[in-house]
Specification:
heterodimer, A: about 625 residues, alpha/beta, Rossmann fold, seven-stranded mixed β-sheet, about 25% strand, globular, B: about 400 residues, alpha+beta, MetI-like fold, two-stranded antiparallel sheet, 6 strands
Chain lengths: ~625, ~400
């Protein structure tokens, strides 16, 4: 049977001022009828460019398909004219994007947008197209499709919009649906619903899906086959069960080990040193060389082909639709391994276990009592306050010395607002925050200054949390100048060097601007800046959620080690429950401005009492290889 | 005796700024050296800078002026009955003196560029005594590179005189706009609340009045002419060498007052955005004072917007001067300006045959100022952005 999609040796390059960017560099795969094929990898590995290349939507004029072919139902589509391509897009191949908030046009109703998609490809009367659209809205499990048909996108939540996008994508019954990170910007519970929906409709319509994700657990639960991408190449490809049970490529192995989880609590996470290289300076040989823990002397010079064994026959990467477990690594090449250049370069460092302290006996550092934060809702020309939006509605929390309290909840539940109100970055409406026996809600101005250095915050986005016009050294010094005015210039400089060293950066990096650092390094600067003023309590507001898994592991390890070295307490605000399992001692689950349940990690994760907590825990995708 | 107009001070200020930039850039380190390093690599910006320096030089020469004593026919200085020397009320600038020939070599009326003969026929007396209508030979054939205008004065000279007006209008107004817009915009955006309301009311009110009407009203109140009449002697010179009653100066002030609102609105919006950014909140968490936060985090991150807006506004200000001169409330007819040249071109273009060189001269010179100013401004903005500075290899 011909596969629905067959990609052969696809190469998509970008001309950049720094040279030719080989975003996708010779990948081959195929997707059978009704199959879900997943491309997984960190950001910058070429997953999305692959999707755009298949759609023939490579952004010009700098991007172009340099080589390779895509076959749709056996028909070549790379060489088609623009009008022929347009007939295929949306009709034979359609796509769901990551950001449902911006992928619908706000000035047209939902109905109009679906009808437009239908009429573009099928000769239907307005009546028929309308019926199809309403039918599709029903199919994506939206309530009262007739009413929704006339609704504008802004009236819908993110999850509902993503459903509309799916309805639009499937309205023409495409052969292939490309889902590019379809749930990344959604909450866990909604992510679960959307993924289930895609699966159901896929079975119903017998469509093939190309799923693109950086989340290994999502891929595990949804894909039949997986291709792991790194540096514009597929480094490993096999059936899902096979790849997760028996990962072969060092990158895949590391990715799986870097993901936090409850079973890894006592030891640091496995990390991949460095970051994904830019597509203009990939290493000449194996793309993973330089970061690989099993690198051999010849790796950096020789590029490994993607190959595997089937019935003891060697098969190469050009044979794309096979059950064989394909891997691009010299480790599995007997020819390579018999040569002298197969000497391993470095040793695999074994992670040392962390001593765990019983957290119950630790003394209390911070108590939050009945904290409220209301946003006034203003109306009319005179801006009279007509009501309040209860972002944080009376929460109680206790943080113990040297331990971590995780505050979890979905977006919009008020967890970030709570974190800022505790630090008095915003003025709480009501309630007390007692830190070391002092109610800091009563302090202001100068009185608050001593507490400012003891209580600090690490922000989510390493790109907006550092002033782009200040050098790293100045950024770190800023807090020192303000909070430790007694320090002389020399001792300030010394301390900057010390904290840079502590977070794993070199002191000479102080003279660089934020944009010269990678995302992970920037987050390290954010941590260094906080450590410089010697705090005892740090609020980590989604401190790792914008980072790749391998970098997230580095940062989590760093946070854990500084906690142990300095006896710091953390309030970890996050939506990612796997991080909670790994990092936290206690958990507070927040919903709609209130704490619905709190307790130790073991209590909550093994025996949740509230309905909401149960739902949240069930929705988390997990990798369970029996 | 030197005469200093209020607008001359603007030019001197500009010269001082450029000079101090050179000194700081040469000394190395700091912002100036940074900007210079970047511009030096950018060939287009270097060319622009060279052109701008030429314009600046001409404008500066046109801003150094002094009055000459009037000489009597016998070569002695003219004197009042009580023995005071009498001076010419018109103070000629250094430029006027250098381009003496261009200024003095006038023709009778229109002549095209590089022409040998006049553009209109007139009655000429031939050597044989006959009179006929023909194109008269010029007094200075081939000397007028851009032709002559209706009264026969050199168009190139008028255009060169227009440089000072254009530069003064552009920079003078800008100098007034920046502090207003930056101060009020940041105040409104950063603190919000009451301050925001008041400032918004002010600029909405100001921008709801048609700009030209407002300028007309202001000009009628303040825009008195420079020379007040009367005899200029040694005494008047001693006390009155500084002339605040300068139409051009008031034009700058008035245009500044009416056009700071656009920039202010942009700055307020950007400040609102910046205030919510995490690095500002981080500064807040470190207990950094509001003033320091504004100076260190808000203003530097606004500079690119300020530069873009000013460069765009610079061009529109030069154009606005032309419009105002057109309706007769710009600089006086005695001051050379591109606006006046364009204004007169209105009639020249409608006559037959068309006189095209006057507007061409104004166009070339305006273009030559506005385009390099844009390119140079862009390059300065890039040089101040650390992201771009390092990105360029």
């Amino acid at each position: 049977m011909t596969p629905v999609l067959e990609v052969k040796n696809l190469k998509t390059y970008f001309r950049t001022p720094f040279g030719l960017g080989k975003a996708v560099d010779g990948i081959s795969f195929s997707i059978g009828k009704g199959e879900t094929f997943a491309l997984v990898g960190e950001s910058g590995c070429g997953k999305s460019v692959t999707a755009l290349s298949i759609m023939q939507l490579v952004p010009g004029p700098h991007g172009f398909i340099a080589e390779g072919e895509c076959f749709l139902n056996g028909k070549e589509i790379t060489g088609l004219s623009e009008s022929e391509k347009r007939k295929i897009r949306g009709n034979n191949i359609s796509m769901i994007f990551q950001e449902p908030m911006t992928s619908l046009n706000p000035v047209f109703t939902i109905g109009e947008q679906i009808v437009e998609a239908v009429k573009l490809h099928h000769k239907k009367s307005s009546r028929e197209a309308r019926d199809i659209a309403v039918g599709m809205l029903g199919k994506v499990r939206l309530k009262s499709p007739e009413t929704l048909f006339k609704e504008y996108p802004h009236r819908l939540s993110g999850g509902m919009r993503q459903r509309v996008m799916i309805a639009m994508a499937l309205a023409c019954k495409p052969d292939l649906l490309i889902a590019d990170e379809p749930t990344t910007s959604l909450d866990v519970t909604i992510q679960r619903e959307i993924l289930n929906l895609i699966k159901e409709l896929q079975t119903e319509m017998f469509a093939s899906v190309l799923l693109i994700s950086h989340n290994l657990a999502v891929v595990f639960e949804n894909a039949n086959r997986v291709g792991v991408m790194y540096g514009g190449k597929i480094v490993e490809m096999s059936g899902t069960k096979d790849i997760f049970r028996n990962p072969m490529h060092p990158y895949t192995i590391k990715l799986l080990r870097a993901a936090p989880g409850v079973e890894k609590r006592t030891k640091p996470l496995d990390t991949i040193p460095g970051a994904v290289p830019a597509s203009v300076d990939f290493p000449a040989g194996c793309r993973f060389s330089g970061r690989c823990h099993r690198e051999m002397e010849g790796c950096a010079a020789m590029e490994p082909p993607l190959y595997g064994r089937e019935n003891s026959h060697l098969v190469t990467h050009l044979v794309t639709h096979l059950a064989a477990h394909l891997v691009a690594c010299h480790l599995y090449d007997p020819g390579f391994m018999s040569k002298p250049y197969s000497r391993p370069l470095g040793k695999i460092p074994e992670a040392a276990p962390l001593p765990a302290l019983p957290h119950k006996d630790r003394e209390t550092l911070l108590t939050v009592k009945g904290l409220k934060y209301y946003y006034p809702v203003k109306k009319g020309i005179l801006k009279k306050t007509t009501g309040y939006l209860r972002a944080v509605d009376g929460i109680d929390l206790t943080v113990r010395k040297g331990s971590t309290l995780a505050l979890v909840g979905e977006s919009g539940c008020g967890k970030t607002t709570a974190g800022k109100a505790i630090l008095k970055l915003i003025e709480p409406t009501e309630g007390n925050v007692i830190f070391k026996g002092c109610d800091i809600t009563r302090l202001s101005g100068r009185g608050l200054l001593p507490y400012r250095s003891l209580m600090q915050i690490i922000f989510q986005d390493p790109y907006s949390s550092l002033d782009p016009r200040m050098m790293a050294g100045d950024i770190i010094e800023e807090g020192l100048k303000s909070l430790k005015p007694g320090l002389g210039k020399k001792s300030r400089k010394e301390r900057v060097s010390r904290v840079l060293d502590m977070v794993g950066l070199t002191p000479d990096m102080r003279n660089r601007y934020p944009h010269e650092f990678s995302g992970g390094q920037r987050q390290r600067i954010g941590i260094a800046r906080v450590l410089a003023v010697e705090p005892e309590f740090i609020v980590c507001d989604e401190a790792t959620s914008s980072l790749d898994v391998s970098v997230q592991a580095q940062i989590l390890n760093l946070l854990k080690s500084i906690q142990q070295d300095f006896g710091l307490s953390f309030l970890f605000i996050t939506h990612d429950l796997s991080i909670v399992e790994y990092m936290a001692d206690e958990v507070a689950v927040m919903y709609d401005g209130k704490i619905v349940e709190s307790g130790t990690v073991e209590e909550i994760f093994t025996n949740p009492k509230e309905e909401y907590t149960k739902r949240l825990l069930l929705a988390v995708p997990r990798i369970e290889v029996a | 005796m030197p005469v200093i107009l209020a607008t001359d001070l603007i030019m001197y200020f500009l010269f001082l700024m450029a000079a101090s930039f050179t000194v700081f850039a040469a000394r190395g380190g700091g912002v100036c050296a940074q900007v210079w390093r970047h511009i030096r690599k950018d060939r287009l910006a270097m060319v622009s800078m060279f052109i701008l320096l030429l314009y600046g030089g001409v404008a500066l020469m046109d801003s150094i002026r002094w009055r000459d004593p009037i000489t009597a026919q016998d070569g002695t200085f003219a004197q009042t009955p009580d023995g005071k020397r009498i001076f010419n009320p018109q103070a000629l600038s250094l430029l006027d003196r250098i381009l003496h020939n261009l200024r003095e070599d006038t023709e009778k009326t229109f002549s095209p560029p590089f022409a040998g003969y006049s553009y209109v026929k007139e009655a000429i007396e031939r050597p044989n005594g006959a009179t006929e209508r023909d194109y008269a030979p010029l007094k200075h054939p081939g000397d007028h590179w851009l032709g002559t205008d209706k009264v026969g004065s050199d168009v190139l000279f008028s255009a060169l005189k227009g440089i000072r007006t254009g530069v003064v209008i552009g920079t003078g107004t800008t100098i007034i706009i920046i502090p207003f817009a930056l101060f009020f915009g940041v105040l409104a955006g950063y603190f919000g609340g009451f301050a925001d309301d008041i400032i918004q009311y002010i600029y909405t009110t100001l921008s709801s009045i048609p700009g030209v009407l407002l300028i007309v009203a202001f000009m009628l109140i303040f825009g008195t002419s420079g020379y007040q009449g009367g005899l200029v002697t040694e005494d008047t010179l001693l006390f009155g060498f500084f002339v605040p009653q300068d139409r051009l100066f008031w034009l700058c002030v008035i245009m500044g007052i009416t056009s700071w609102t656009d920039l202010c609105r942009i700055i307020r919006g950007e400040t609102l955005k910046l205030r919510e950014l995490e690095y500002v909140q981080a500064a807040n968490a470190f207990g950094v004072s509001d003033t320091m936060t504004i100076i260190r985090h808000i203003v530097p991150n606004l500079m690119h917007l300020v530069l873009i807006t000013l460069v765009l506004q610079f061009s529109s200000l030069v154009l606005a001067e032309a419009i105002l001169s057109y309706i007769g409330i710009g600089v006086g007819p005695e001051t050379g300006s591109w606006g006046n040249m364009i204004n007169s071109a209105r009639l020249e273009l409608s006559r037959e045959p068309v006189v095209w060189w006057s507007i061409l001269g104004a166009f070339i010179f305006m273009f030559g100022l506005v385009l390099p100013a844009n390119i140079f401004g862009d390059s300065v903005r890039d040089s101040l952005d650390p992201r771009l500075r390092m990105g360029k290899r």
